[in-house]
Amino acid sequence: MTIEPILIISAVFLLVGIFASKIAVRTGVPALVLFLAIGMLAGSDGPGGVYFDSPSLAQGVGVVALAFILFSGGLDTQWGHMRPVLLPGLSLATIGVIISATLVGVMASQVLGFTMLEGMLLGAIIASTDAAAVFAMLGGRGIALKGKLKPLIELESGSNDPVAVLLTIGVIQLIGNPDLSPIALIPLFLQQMIIGAAVGWLFSRLIVPLINRLRLEFDGLYPVLTIAAVLLTYGVTAILGGSGFLAVYILGIMMGRAEFIHKRSLGQFHDGIAWLMQIVMFVTLGLQVFPSELPAVAGEGILAALFLLFVARPVSVFIALAASRLTVREKLFISWVGLRGATPIVLATFPVLAGVAQADAIFNLVFFIVLISVLMQGTLAPPMARWLGVQAQSQPPSSLSYVMRDGVISNNLREITLSENSPAAGRQIVDLSLPADVLIMLIGRADDSIIPRGSTILEAGDTVLVLARDNAQDELTQIFGD
Fold first, then answer.
1. S-S: 134 plus which of 82, 122, 157, 396, CB 3.0-4.6 Å?
2. Which residues contact residue 160 at a Cβ distance below 8 angstroms, ignoring those fewer than 6 apart?
3. What tens digit of pLDDT does each residue of 396-421 get?
4. How far apart (Å, rounded) are the C-alpha atoms in residues 110 and 26?
5. Confidence band, pLDDT 50/70/90 cuts, at residue 208
6. Residue 359 contacts by C-beta under 8 Å, 6 or more apart in sequence?
7. 3-state class (DSSP) for residue 467
8. Domains detected in the chain
9. Residue 198: helix, strand or coil by DSSP?
């Protein structure tokens, strides 16, 4: 096939995915289900007739897509909201995943005819919630939640992938080498988590100053720089033996806390990249599955999905959050929105590539479980939030909401002329560490008016038009001088 048909087919897939997102908003059906359906319809068993059977390629596409989705989710996360839920979030991401995997493994070995290790493999693959599905549900469905529920759910989905990956790889090793002790997996888990967190933090400390100091002549190169940062962070972490998923998520969170040039536009750019990756990933995974093989596992898939939804997930949530102050209703909602998505399907390709005996059956089961999870949990999430009383009244965003993170500032404009001794003279705006409630609107220099950017260097004699709160005078004096 020449390049032209490939380009046309790719464009059609993307356009159909975009229209599918519109349909999803109007019908309430999660967009991710429609993306999967597009891939299945286009595949060899569907009217599209596109033959695709490459687990290694599907796995590679899924890994890259998840890296960018996690980075975008971290970049959009407000650390001030996440910090209070750090401990319960990490408890869900570790203890919750292990308990859920174990319960599903026992059920699969006792009811579905798997061996204990094969059942644990199925449990490990579907134990983690999916960041792409959760971020899309909370963002795309516009669900406003009370208290700290949203950051807790996002933190869990963004940080539990390393545990699921470790469990999956570990169980595959145990199947291939029965003499290996499960205790040997503990050092591997610590290595993955420590290296992943350390590399993500280190790269954030390098990338942010690089963005601010590089002063690229073309603004379009800044998105290219952040794309390279995501790929480099994941690749280096994986080579060092750490969790690349955790590293890029930490990179996004730490960059979201910092101030850097074009931060807002880069956030919007990576939001678009995240949607592109979701479409590409779910369509690819839809192509990989053969719908004609699904009816054979329908009964087992429904049973496993219902057990996960109504037994394994709630039990793991209530145990992992036993020490938290969350109410029963809040824990029930967290249990309900533990969506499974692309991550389990990507992990289901691992046993296929490793040659595990029941790999094909496990892949089809996982795909069926994901479909049920996204359809049931994703579709019913808004009414479940209302029924459990955890939905907050949504507030229309203020036109000035990007100026500060916790409310709307007053229209208080000040003109400040920088003296020769001003602390701000000779510095880039991004280096001033402006508070969230202070915004430079315009710079007057001689006869020119300059629209400020993060890379703009202030000069003595500049007249700076500043939007700030009424009580920000002390902060302004400290930043700009008398």
1. 157
2. 92, 93, 94, 96, 97, 127, 128, 129
3. 444 444 444 444 444 577 788 888 88
4. 42
5. very high
6. 351, 352
7. strand
8. 3-387 (1.20.1530.20), 403-480 (3.30.70.1450)
9. helix
